[in-house]
Design goal:
6-stranded antiparallel β-sheet; Aminoglycoside phosphotransferase domain-containing protein; AGP_Transferase; alpha+beta; Phosphorylase Kinase, domain 1; 3-stranded antiparallel β-sheet; single chain; 436 residues; 11 strands; globular; 2 domains; 14% strand
């Protein structure tokens, strides 16, 4: 896939190129292009297409359609993002559809006025929550906490009989000149149930003796085609077995590093299995459901106020970023948006691209009564099962181990993250034993 155009370009230089694209898509509209905002997912240019004229009753009208043009940092991400949205929408019910933007137009090539692959998503009217939350009244903040809690619940009600992670191999082709879809998953009938305990017990031996296909555990299809009726503990174990297998076979890992990496991975797996044994009430009932880290990122949440202006009751209109969405164990999606009630910094971690991997090990507690009211509104909206999986150091460790392991390829920074997590776990266990 070509990459002729520059990623970094001034707005003045890029604006006429975007306008050329827009004039083809909306030839009868007046086009307004706003200065871009940048983030981990790339550059985003808000676009408004305005149609105005006179209707049959000779009344003047003006209608606005809103979009956002995305230019990812990596040119090969465009087709994958569009297909993640496509597959998520296939399984989403009406209760979640309203949260998901549509891919209005996708160009995965560089043969366009921009000189780079891009996609255009629908953009509902409203404000990015990060722009307005600080200035909201107490009643508005409580309403947002309730709305966001309900959004978490609606997403987690999307159950799936499989587990899927959007890890796309851009070197493969589906026969039609496109990249392989991230969710090549087929639903399994009850008769196709698998004895997972027996199968997983055999996996390490299979890998060790070379009986397993060398590529199986490193491809996300292993977790797509073969994971009906999985529980959280089984998915987590498979993720780390896949990583262990990758460590054995990856040409990018030096031979002298493999043994140390494997000891680290096996120790990490032992830690998270200990957590699961220690929290049977959470993990016994855990299930596979939709998970979107974008639910907790302030810049991706769009809100609108009743009655216009910014004084009315806020309503969440959409979640803009679904690029990291997956079908995953429920506990992985129970990272509470604690910036609602406790993060004092203006530059909060809630806008960080790896927000889910920077969850503080100690629960963020409300600093005052007003913040406590906001947290209470969120907790009541999500319910006790979510709260049980959300709060507590054990569950934070479980989520952070899971987040590190869930999507290959892994690099040295991922191994370093595991080393830090294991060291933090060992220190807390040591302190806990001394206190007992």
């Amino acid at each position: 896939m070509g990459d002729r155009g520059e990623y970094i370009m001034s707005f003045e230089e890029r604006r006429p190129k975007i306008l050329e694209v827009c004039q083809v898509l909306w030839p009868d509209a007046d086009i307004w292009i706003t200065s871009p905002c940048g983030g981990h997912s790339g550059l985003e240019y808000p676009i408004t297409a305005t149609y105005s004229g006179v209707d049959e009753s000779m009344n003047r009208y003006s209608n606005d359609d809103r979009y956002v043009l995305q230019i990812p940092r990596r040119a090969d991400e465009v087709a994958g993002r569009a297909e993640v949205l496509e597959h998520i929408e296939l399984f989403a019910s009406d209760g979640v559809q309203w949260l998901i933007p549509d891919a209005f137009h996708v160009d995965p090539t560089s043969h366009n006025p921009l000189g780079r692959p891009y996609l255009i998503l629908t953009r509902p009217p409203g404000w990015a929550l990060g722009e307005v939350y600080r200035d909201m009244s107490q009643a508005q903040k409580v309403k947002v906490a309730t709305e966001l809690g309900r959004a978490f619940c609606e997403v987690q009600m999307e159950l799936a009989p499989f587990c899927g992670y959007p890890s796309i191999d851009y070197n493969e082709d589906d026969g039609e000149g496109r990249c392989v879809k991230p969710f090549q998953i087929k639903k399994m009938e009850e008769k196709d149930k698998v004895d997972w305990d027996a199968m997983m017990a055999s996996l390490p031996a299979d890998v060790e003796h070379g009986e397993q296909d060398p590529a199986v555990l490193t491809r996300s299809s292993f977790l797509k085609d073969r994971t009906p009726h999985l529980k959280a503990r089984q998915v987590v174990r498979l993720l780390f077995l896949r990583w262990i297998h990758h460590n054995h076979h990856s040409s990018s890992i030096a031979p002298w590093e493999r043994d140390a990496n494997e000891r680290l991975l096996e120790r990490s797996l032992a830690v998270i299995e200990a957590i699961m044994r220690r929290n049977p009430d959470v993990f016994a009932s855990d299930h596979i459901c939709m998970h979107n880290p974008g639910l907790g990122v302030t810049e991706t949440i769009t809100v609108e106020f009743a009655g216009g202006g910014r004084e009315g009751a806020p309503q969440i209109m959409s979640i803009a970023d679904w690029s990291a969405a997956a079908f995953a164990p429920r506990f992985a999606g129970c990272r509470a948006p604690d910036w609602l009630w406790g993060v004092p910094d203006e530059e909060t971690v809630a806008s960080h691209p790896r927000w889910e991997r920077f969850e503080p090990l100690d629960q963020v507690r409300p600093a005052h009564a007003a913040a406590a009211e906001v947290k209470r509104a969120f907790d009541e909206a999500v319910g006790p099962a979510f709260c049980q999986a959300a709060y507590g150091t054990d569950m934070v460790f479980a989520r952070r181990f899971h987040a590190a392991a869930r999507v290959p390829p892994w690099c040295e920074s991922d191994y370093e993250e595991l080393r830090e997590l294991v060291a933090q776990w060992d220190e807390r266990e040591r302190v806990g034993r001394l206190q007992r």
